[in-house]
Amino acid sequence: MVQSRFHYFTDSAKLALKEAQQSAERYQQTYIAPEHLLLGITTSGTTTVSKLLERLEVDQSLLHAATERAIADWLAAHSGGETSWQGLTPETRQAIELAVGEASREQQGFIGSEHLLLALLSQSGTLASEVLERAGLDLERARVKLHRLRQEGHASEP
Asked: What keywords does the record list, in alphabetical order (predicted)?
């Protein structure tokens, strides 16, 4: 990944992207899809995302495990299917753009891992969006809970 493109990302968002890349490699995939990004977001320890998920009454480790299961199931159902994608898929690029939009909407000068989660929640038709929907998460409720966290003084980590 080109580091300068991610200059405005917090350390936790950068770590989520790095974890997403490592997840894709673990599954021997040449591309980073939204589900890998979801794994990256849910891998991190105490972040704004972990606080947000707690407020949304979603266990971060269970969400991570559900994402791992969904990827494994998808791979089993599509074994032998080759893909020509390298790097970020169009859906992942869109998620990053949506995260930038979420940060702007919140008038933040940075993109945090919480913005990546909101972006994934705003997408449909991806494996990540299916996992998030099954977990009972929705975009508007997540935005409200994040706003409350901000009001309580929970800023995004650097």
From this structure: Repeat
Tokens of 59: 């266990």
Contact status, residue 43 vs residue 59, Cβ threshold 8 Å: no
C-alpha to C-alpha distance for 79 and 118, rounded to whole angstroms: 30
Helix (H, G, I), strand (E, B) or coil at 32: strand
* 31: β partners: 87
Q: What is the pLDDT of residues 30-42, one digit of tens each?
A: 999 999 999 999 9
Amino acid, res. 7 = H
pLDDT of residue 46 exceeding 60: yes
Which pTM value belongs to this model?
Answer: 0.90
**42, 100, 93, 98: which is closest to 71 by C-alpha?**
42
Cα separation, 6 vs 14, in Å, equals: 7
Predicted local confidence at residue 158, as pLDDT:
61
Strand stretches in 26-117, DSSP E: 31-32, 87-88
Q: Could you tell me where the beta strands, DSSP code E, fall in the chain?
A: 31-32, 87-88
* The domain defined by 7-151 carries CATH number 3.40.630.30: no
Q: How many CB atoms lie within 10 A of CB 95?
A: 28
